[in-house]
Amino acid sequence: MKELLSQDPEITVVASASNGLEAFELCREFKPDIVIMDVRMPECSGIDGTRLIKTHMPDIKVIMFTTFEDQDYITEAVKYGAEGYILKDSGQEHIRMVIKSVYKGYPVFHKKALDSMAQSISGSKTEKAEINLSPIEKEILRLVVEGRSNKQIGCVLGLSEGRVKNILSELFEKTNTRDRTQLAVFAVRNDLVD
Predict the structure, then answer these.
(1) What CATH class has 135-189?
(2) HTH luxR-type domain location, by residue (predicted)?
């Protein structure tokens, strides 16, 4: 991972840790913008490391690096404040896109992780919310679930960034959500995206 990230001129790797506690200590020393945290590490897991980092340094963004089998861990990591996750078999471009999106403040989660989080939040299958969405709202919702930024959404749909923000505000109101992560979970839980 360090080698891959070092190839991108926009990304600087400042340290590497072998467990969650070491990651926490390195964060105190280097104050990075983003930590890529492996879920399964010896001694102090990535979940515990995430909890430590987000408790003491909430401005540092944490992206979990994991296999799909770690869904329960992902839900727990999100509970502690992780802003995204990358599957270990992801391509180089996808990994860079996730890092840059999270850096800009846009959480990125795989649709299946959102399914898992939605299940966890709802506790059980409940009735789906009935919300009438325009085609453009549905398309923006789909792109939010993919982890796209407002600028990327605007580019894909031919809309200004300001228009995208306005539509997102309307979506937050319609779905009674406060942020992009809640909106994405709501969309998946209610089958509003394919």
Answers:
(1) mainly alpha
(2) 126-191
